[in-house]
Amino acid sequence: MVQQSLKVRPTDVTVLNASGKATLPTEPNCLSQLAHVHRLRDSELNYADHRYNIDMQMLRNREGLGAPLKMGMDRFAAKRIGRLPFLQSSNLMDDVLTGRCDEITFQDFLGLPEYNENLRQPHAVVEKSLGIYL
Questions:
Q1: What's the gap between Cα 57 and its chain centre?
Q2: pLDDT tens digits for 89-102?
Q3: Cα-Cα-Cα-Cα dihedral of 33, 39, 43, 46, to 10°?
Q4: Is 103 helix (H, G, I), strand (E, B) or coil?
Q5: Which of the listed ranges 9-13, 60-64, 84-88 does the model predict with the highest average pLDDT?
Q6: In Å, how far are 37, 46, 86, 99, 100 from 107, measured between CA atoms?
Q7: What's the DSSP call for residue 110?
Q8: Do 75 and 98 meet the contact criterion of CB atoms below 8 Å apart?
Q9: Could you report how far apart the first and last alpha carbons of the chain are, in Å?
Q10: Long-range CB contacts for residues 73-80, cutoff 8 Å, separation at least 24
Q11: Could you give the CA distance from residue 101 to residue 80 in angstroms, rounded to a whole number?
């Protein structure tokens, strides 16, 4: 006889309960079932920041406050370097400072929208960012 594991509990519903009336937040309805967000999504979104914070805590415990403070100031200075508004930054300097330049992750090859080419008129974008309207 096959026993079902206690750790695995099916949460997906097989039938969408579509109704026209307003329901309580605890009642399953069509929108709440379609707007299901996976539990690991938030963990994956915050992975790089969480890993950086843990690395800085370990560095502080091993080397003292000076090393993580200097690295934090270097990273802050790297983020402040700007480009013209119509050019998107690749954040290469921040990737080098945090060590992400040595990794190949999903963000590198899945074609995120921020890596798409934006064909905008450079003069119009700069004038808009400076507040010059003709």
A1: 22
A2: 778 898 899 888 88
A3: 20
A4: coil
A5: 60-64
A6: 19, 13, 22, 15, 11
A7: S
A8: yes
A9: 78
A10: none
A11: 19
Digit-coded pLDDT (tens) for 52-63: 999 999 999 999
Measured in whole angstroms, how far is the alpha carbon of residue 27 from the centre of its chain? Answer: 30
Kindly report the CA angle at 31 between 30 and 37, in degrees rounded to 5? 115
pLDDT per position as a tens digit, 21-48: 655 555 666 666 566 677 787 788 888 8
Instruction: Name, in order, each residue with C-beta under 8 angstroms of 30's C-beta and a sequence gap of 6 or more.
Output: 16, 17, 18, 19
Distance of CA 33 to the CA centre of its chain: 24
At 6, the amino acid letter reads L
